Amino acid sequence: MGGLNTVFGYSVFALFIWLGLEKEWAALASQICGVLFNFRTTGTIVFNNKDWRLIFRFFGVYLLAYLLNIGLLNVFAHYGVGSYVAGAIIILPVSFLTFLLHKRFVFKAMDKTKKRVP
What we know:
Blueprint: H1 2-18, H2 23-46, H3 55-78, H4 83-116
Helix pairs in contact: 1-2, 1-4, 2-3, 3-4
C-alpha cells in the first residue's frame, strides 16, 4: 500500500507542478488528495480499520508531513534542485515517517481503546 500511496501522492504533486502551481500549493493539493486516498487504503488494508473517527488524527500526521515536505522542498530549492527531483527524493523518507506515525499514534491508539472494551 505504501508504494501505491506514494505513487499516487507524487503523481498528483507532479500533475499540479505541470499545471503551473507553485511548489507549496502543489504540495498542499497533493497532500489533501493523498490524505483522503490514503486514509481508505492505509486504514482498511494495512491496519484493518475503517473507523472514520480516526480521520482527524490521520490529518494531523499528514499536516506534519506537509510541513516537513515544504521545508525540505525549500532546502532543495535553495541548492538549485528542481521541484520534480526534490519531490522524488523527499517522498520515500517522508512516507516512511508517516507510516511510523500512523502505526504509533493513529491506528495503534485505537487498537488499545478497542482492547479495553469488553
